[in-house]
């Protein structure tokens, strides 16, 4: 399999897409791009070898007794770890279920609360796109730091906010990336086409559904579904968030890759009412992120910074749930030009990613407080 990055322009933006091509179709694929004057670059001549290298690096994490951040973990390992935390620290941690999945798994999370139910709330969503393994790894790293770090800055945000953390909001898809298809993105529901299962859950929320940056083709990675909240995962997760109305003040979604810090809107080029505040807070958060390792993030609204997209979780949270600090981090790497497919981030990048994201969250919360968002 060959990994290409294809560059093209629309009336509103310049875009690029990553495309995996079989050896049998490579000549036809290049000819088609050339015919239509579409520029492209070959990044990986053997994606399967890249996947095999990742597997060799990871080994079998379930053979390890300790849950750590030197490897990517299975869903079962992470769920067992969270259950153990809730049993070990019942005074601080509550195990949560935000619904179930098409294949019958739970969407498990935890609530961390040290002081008061009156604390402002931060909800962290991870793993909504199955192949983006660095997302759940980063959310669990954050969870662990909130529990165990002795850094005074981390202790402050741990104890003065209530945290709702869901590492895997697309559990079925994540399991499938471990067992069948490492680059699977969507849910695993049957949508009337046995050849092309699943829906993009981050295009399935009931907010300007299927308007921009989506597809009505069930075989597309950006398939928005037959209707908004067609997926049990997005439906039950959103119901859980709605049950917390008034308790969540910040919504953070973790994705990969590109090193971007995004905020609404994506469905339109119209700017959000508090666009300037979102930009200012984001700039400060990105600056704090860069200080530890020099990692540079670009900050801006979804529409202008990456591409038009509608039906996403952070925009639904922003307008329907009135959570006016709603952000999406597109995590490391900046691009896949270093030889790995960008979704296949080496596990030695997990801890550095987690460290700089914690730095960023501290700054984001501090500036949000300074601007009277809570």
Descriptive report:
The termini are far apart. The protein folds into two domains: 2-45; 65-370, Zn peptidases (Aminopeptidase). Helix 4 (134-148) packs across helix 11 (350-370). With 374 residues, the protein is α/β, with parallel strands linked by helices. It has helices at 26-35, 47-58, 75-88, 134-148, 152-160, 171-179, 232-243, 275-293, 302-305, 313-319, 350-370, and strands at residues 2-9, 14-21, 39-44, 93-100, 106-112, 120-125, 161-166, 250-256, 260-263, 298-301, 325-331. The radius of gyration is 20 Å and the shape is globular. The strands form two sheets. Strands 4-5-7-6-8-11-9-10 form an eight-stranded mixed beta sheet, with helices on both faces. The chain is built from eleven helices and eleven strands. The model is unreliable at 10-14 (pLDDT under 50).
Keywords:
single chain, 374 residues, alpha/beta, Aminopeptidase, 2 domains, three-stranded antiparallel beta sheet, 11 helices
Structure in a nutshell:
With 374 residues, this protein is an alpha/beta fold. It has eleven helices and eleven strands. The chain has helices at 26-35, 47-58, 75-88, 134-148, 152-160, 171-179, 232-243, 275-293, 302-305, 313-319, 350-370; strands at residues 2-9, 14-21, 39-44, 93-100, 106-112, 120-125, 161-166, 250-256, 260-263, 298-301, 325-331.
